[in-house]
């Protein structure tokens, strides 16, 4: 964006005396270009350059230091100042777009600020505007402090090009009046003696749940003094703004003790609790609460607010703070907004310190945000550092699933100083592969010498499981920093639908508003789960479709409908329950095959090294599924559908987990799963320590697994040879059977383990084996296949083996296969040997050499010596591993 930063007379001044001298030179006494009259007073315009061109503009913002208003957006033209008047502050005028007629043209412009009744300007800006995208015009310093009163901005050479003019015309000039008022935090406020809310009876004729007017009658302890403003904002029970109104007491009149505020809202007034926050010169001083149940008159509860009350802090933040304003449309925040507001005093203190250039109060903030929809937790977590002024310098979001794949778990946390870190997919911490990262996180949280902030995001179930796994995190995340985003309240859901309808050309009449409100209340359990796409789908396909059908059925060629009738939504058009039923029936139909996703996943499966028999079997299985799908589309019988649950057998490192991930994606592409992700678990995460806990854990994991692949590794450990009914692993199997017997569970269960042990598991429960129609065995890799895997690993890293190194590596692989046992890790072994053995040995060899210049080959070529050193180190580590290797399975 191009910025027009005009040079002005005062910018050449080095101090106040120099400025005053230049002012006198530019504006000699008695030599004004002309005088003009405004509201019965005569004002002097200093001599300044004038041209034939006029600058057109749009997008105006007028500021006084950190305070500003934008009249084009309907903001009141008012500044609120402290008692000292801020003499050091300056006026600035910003315009989004300026147009002088051509790219080369310069329009002389001049701006002056006057106080009404004083002939000389208080501040001015002289300069030229050029065609551009942005213009900033800084005024000269004030001669005296700014005091409360009526002022105006006078502009020469300017034409308002906005949709609605914000300037008054005064001959050749344009004028923008504004008011300077004393900030409300230093004023004595009236108290609210009584209040009464009401809705006009005519608005309730079609029903109680309509948009439109709500009145609030106030009785104050004292009338408003001259030049004071009373403003009010009405909030719903979850602190979303419903409507606002304000009263400005004229400077020459005495205010009334009884006031009536009018809240006109385009949103439907729903049953529930409403809170009106009253402000005196923008400072909250009272709240008025009432319950609306569809009646015309409502009693109110009045309460005075102090500067530190949560309602006062929340109202000011929602009005003035950009980060809080971003959360205005967040749903499920009914209790959460007040909880967050209670933490604002510390934030305000840090803001004060920053303004005064003092050291902030730095305290590590550890928070947790939970929501049924993880996205809702993540978006709130992103706003928290700004909302609560953490004083951090950077905000980062980290996927824990990606973090656990890194070689060094602590590396991600090494640069956490001054950062606000948000972690999501936190359920991985409780799995075996996440333990190292969890330990690193616990160590960082316990370190009080490094200043940083942490927010954990997930579902409530994920957070509870994490806290059970990590007492350290449970202890450090205090209750006041545990935030729960709840399901949307009814007004949340209804107003979201209204906003989507408002984006179309259609408008609800009163009967349609009542019908929509009632049906949302009836169907809220379903509608509250809709995202924006589902809401839009209902409006554009369901609602608009019924409108078209109604108009078509009632069309009369003699009396054609008016345009207003064509865009008016009637009660009969809503039919929300019918739309939900249609969605349910559609969801029972086969989703169909995503050919591209299926082909990509199968290509990835084929690219895996080895597993020839498995690939052939899976390909046949998938072809059969697609074959049945096409017969179904043709109306041909397909027979009784069988479940798709699978058993994987084989030794470690043979690709079972990788294939399970591909299986989820392939089943998703075939329409057999709604999500297609893999939920990995094992015995210790499923079996409880007391009666009832196992069922709780299983229910939680089964909820997560809906739509996905549930992968249970070492599944044989769920049952021992013991007949002891206190073995809670048996309860896991029994819980699984409830899912395995469902005809369409939207879940694929994969049990994995050693061949013999898995067979004993199947024999342990008569109903188990028949529920797994597919069984795939993963053979151990051959020497050629392991060499191929090692070669791919090196190739991805940009390395290559010398012939001698390749020969020694093959000898090593063949020797490992000749002496392998059932614990041999196959692909995992060879990858570890390359990444943790050969490459570190190569690095030590190369860095020990005194090589001048940059020899690329040296850094890419793996020598025989590197493999030999890896063998030596591996032999030492293997001897140690053999002594400490644990037993697999359970002793009878």
From TrEMBL:
Q: Name one GO molecular function term.
A: ATP hydrolysis activity
Going by the entry's taxonomy, the superkingdom of the source organism is recorded as Bacteria
SUPFAM superfamilies reported in the protein's UniProt record: P-loop containing nucleoside triphosphate hydrolases
| Organism of this sequence | Candidatus Bacteroides intestinipullorum
Q: Which residues form the AAA+ ATPase domain?
A: 642-782
Family (UniProt): Belongs to the CbxX/CfxQ family.
Keyword Nucleotide-binding attributed: yes
Alphabetical list of InterPro entries matching this protein: AAA+_ATPase (IPR003593), ATPase_AAA_core (IPR003959), CbxX/CfxQ (IPR000641), CbxX/CfxQ_RuBisCO_ESX (IPR050773), P-loop_NTPase (IPR027417)
Q: Which PANTHER family match?
A: AAA-TYPE ATPASE FAMILY PROTEIN / ANKYRIN REPEAT FAMILY PROTEIN (PTHR43392), AAA-TYPE ATPASE FAMILY PROTEIN _ ANKYRIN REPEAT FAMILY PROTEIN (PTHR43392:SF2)
Q: Which UniProt keywords apply?
A: ATP-binding, Nucleotide-binding
According to its UniProt record, what is one Pfam family this protein matches? Answer: AAA
Q: Specify the protein name.
A: AAA family ATPase
